[in-house]
User: Fold this.
Amino acid sequence: MPNDALCTSAPAPSDEAFVREVTRPAPVPFVPEVRLQMADDAIELWETTESARGEIGLPPPFWAFAWAGGVGVARYVLDNPELVAGRSVLDLAAGSGLVGIAAALRGARSVRAAEIDAYAVAAIGINAAANGVAIDAAFEDLLDGDGAPAEVVLAGDVFYERAMAARFLPFLERARDRGAVVVVGDPGRAYLPRERFTELAAYQVPVVADLEDTALKTTTVWRLAPAS
Assistant:
């Protein structure tokens, strides 16, 4: 899921109430096994979020939508449970927690979902409970580390911006180099270095047209290849 380098305000007790107020529960298109709190209008929610925080220039409410990259990874995990079953999993830039929920549903030993948006952390907690799974939602920027001790690192749609790609790729490479399996979903973003990845699957993912300017997005699930 898209993310930003700097943390927004820390989680507050009212964040869960806000998430419930501005979203509604619904099954995820293409991943109907999972239900999420989702919004209907991205721009309206963005403005509402800024008003609630009293800040202008906040990151978009990525936590309120099922983004194509995350949907692709979730679909792959649900269809290939051997990737996560019995393993510790990190859902990086987790947004709504969709990917982590899919991993938990398929038998991951533990799931940690890292986010830097307090509303996302609240949304992950709500969504995990609604799907009957346990997820450790962490309000933390992990990109200077290597994701330890997670055995599997999953990320959806993190190569959408040059500056963020420059942070995410070294993190993912450090995770791979210490032995983690690294899998990402990408709907054709400009800054994914495809030559460093191996394709696992490709899907036609239905998306919110207001966010992507199309109704379907070709989304590829990639595994970070061994260092050459």
About this structure: Strands lie at 24-28, 31-38, 88-92, 110-115, 136-139, 152-156, 181-186, 197-206, 216-224. The chain has a mean pLDDT of 91.
